[in-house]
Amino acid sequence: MKIFITGGTTGIGLAIAVQYLEAGHEVGICGRNIQKVELEKNYPLLKMYSVDVYDKDLLKEAVSDFADQNLDIMILSAGNYSDSALHQLSYAESTEMLKCNIVGAINTLEISRDIMNINKKGHIAVIASVSGLLNYPKATIYSKTKRALIQIADAYRRALEDFGIHITIVAPGYVNSPRLRELNNDDLSKKPFVVDCKFAASIIIKGIEEKKEMVVFPSKMKYLIGFLSILPTRLLTFIMLKRVKRQKNG
Ligand SMILES: NC(=O)c1ccc[n+]([C@@H]2O[C@H](COP(=O)([O-])OP(=O)(O)OC[C@H]3O[C@@H](n4cnc5c(N)ncnc54)[C@H](OP(=O)(O)O)[C@@H]3O)[C@@H](O)[C@H]2O)c1
């Protein structure tokens, strides 16, 4: 199969790339900086592209070069996140998040649709976040972008199913990626139910194989989110904001 992964240069995206490569598939990955890719060995079936997903023309060029009308799977792992509430974010940080998590995702969905539509088949996996499953005031802009992404992917699912193109929405809990470690000074001890990138990759690949509409993991986080999402909004907001305060104060 031919699989393209945006944000495949580190973290969850890179772990997915490695698992597909080990299984003998052709993989294309992109990120803004391909120099950061760290691999334990060479993979002849891997192609890398320096691309910002916000640049639709450049992204299209890369995906077309890789897939040439025959793209089996597209995985949207490119994501921009920080741990800050809106008032602590700079204008540049907020716009980077919106450009990558929303516009970049739409660019990727559009490009995938155009290529997959040629053969009337394909699968797209959109990596959102469990934080996008909860709706409460004062959530971070990151959570809001992921919530919007879930809605956008769902709308594309309806539009694309008649063309034989399936969409899996993925909502991970905490995954021990370089970015998450960087944001938490290498200390993830206060984060609940953390899993590693390898585990995340295998759950995501299984969800794609089984053509699941939605994959939420790990299970403990899935049940916690399920419980939180039925709480009244005021109680949910109180719990979520208290949790953030507790984490910040140690
Ligand atoms: N780790 C978690 O706990 C967690 C939990 C829930 C959801 N997620 C989501 O899972 C995805 C992967 O997260 P991760 O933790 O593995 O993060 P990561 O290690 O920071 O990886 C993010 C990837 O996206 C790329 N990227 C960022 N902005 C981009 C842009 N504008 N254009 C192209 N590529 C871009 C990065 O490469 P460059 O910087 O070189 O561009 C990198 O390859 C993200 O969508 C994230 O929101 C993560």
UniProtKB/TrEMBL annotation:
Gene Ontology cellular-component terms for this entry are:
membrane
Do you know which InterPro entries this protein is assigned to? NAD(P)-bd_dom_sf, SDR_fam
List, in alphabetical order, the Gene Ontology terms for molecular function in this entry.
oxidoreductase activity
Q: Which UniProt keywords apply?
A: Membrane, Oxidoreductase, Transmembrane, Transmembrane helix
One Pfam family, short name: adh_short
TM helices/strands, residue ranges: 223-241
Species assigned in the record: Flavobacterium reichenbachii
Family, per entry: Belongs to the short-chain dehydrogenases/reductases (SDR) family.
Report the superkingdom from the record. Answer: Bacteria
Protein name (database record)? 3-oxoacyl-ACP reductase
